[in-house]
């Protein structure tokens, strides 16, 4: 399934860990021919290609410093001029602050473009805590289970391999998940407000099924790009 957009889309996808952002970004790539650009990948590619901005980034990283917004924007600008992203991009990991969002807007405006939509995958924090903190896996084959949603047919025995040892990730406990969500909201609130002010914020209920979220996202992308 591939739909044709009349204008290249510049999408910002926002969502806390566990909201399925990566999965949904891959589906948008499939559905619309968009290309996901993550800051880490962009930096690595620019350094490897030895572009002017890539050389600057390399020097900064080798000095153990953070790559500045200017360099990231320069790399992004180069990347967005490539023919494979003619149908649009999904930005991942940038912008992170409202200052970066304003700088991105300036960059896009200079190219006659703008952010088409900033899409926030909205979760119910407490439901999310339950979802993530109930996860555990078979210690033998790695099959995933959940206290609430997916118990083995025979209690204490893996459906797949018959194993009886299970394990939980230390960082999947309720308190850690709550902390991660809190940090996400604190970091993202200014960005959400920024895009809301620009009239391009779209909110999606990300607690439903993957297919349901996918169709809601597709509807938004079709609408804003038409
Ligand atoms: Zn197993």
UniProtKB/TrEMBL annotation:
GO CC aspect terms: cytoplasm
Keywords: ATP-binding, Cytoplasm, Kinase, Metal-binding, Nucleotide biosynthesis, Nucleotide-binding, Transferase, Zinc
Alphabetical list of InterPro entries matching this protein: Adenyl_kin_sub, Adenylat/UMP-CMP_kin, Adenylat_kinase_CS, Adenylate_kinase_lid-dom, P-loop_NTPase
Binding site for ATP: 18-23, 135, 208
Function comment: Catalyzes the reversible transfer of the terminal phosphate group between ATP and AMP. Plays an important role in cellular energy homeostasis and in adenine nucleotide metabolism.
Subunit composition and interactions: Monomer.
Protein name: Adenylate kinase
PANTHER family, sorted: NUCLEOTIDE KINASE
Compartment annotation: Cytoplasm
Family: Belongs to the adenylate kinase family.
Keyword Kinase among record annotations: yes
């Amino acid at each position: 399934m591939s739909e044709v957009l009349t204008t290249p889309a510049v999408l910002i996808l926002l969502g806390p860990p566990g909201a399925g952002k990566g999965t949904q970004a891959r589906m948008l790539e499939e559905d619309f021919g968009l290309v996901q650009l993550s800051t880490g990948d962009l930096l690595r590619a620019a350094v490897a290609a030895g572009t002017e901005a890539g050389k600057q980034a390399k020097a900064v990283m080798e000095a153990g410093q953070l790559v500045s917004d200017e360099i990231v924007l320069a790399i992004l600008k180069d990347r967005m001029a490539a023919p494979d992203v003619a149908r649009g991009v999904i930005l991942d990991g940038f912008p992170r602050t409202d200052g970066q969002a304003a700088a991105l807007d300036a960059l896009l405006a200079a190219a006659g473009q703008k952010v088409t939509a900033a899409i926030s995958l909205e979760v119910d924090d407490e439901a999310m805590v339950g979802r993530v903190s109930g996860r555990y896996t078979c210690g033998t084959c790695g099959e995933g289970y959940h206290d609430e949603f997916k118990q083995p047919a025979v209690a204490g025995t893996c459906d797949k391999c018959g194993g009886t040892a299970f394990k939980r990730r230390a960082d999947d406990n309720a308190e850690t998940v709550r902390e991660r969500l809190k940090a996400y909201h604190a970091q993202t609130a200014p960005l959400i407000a920024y895009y809301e002010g620009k009239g391009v914020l779209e909110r999606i209920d990300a607690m439903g099924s993957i297919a349901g979220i996918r169709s809601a996202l597709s509807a938004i992308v079709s609408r804003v790009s038409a």
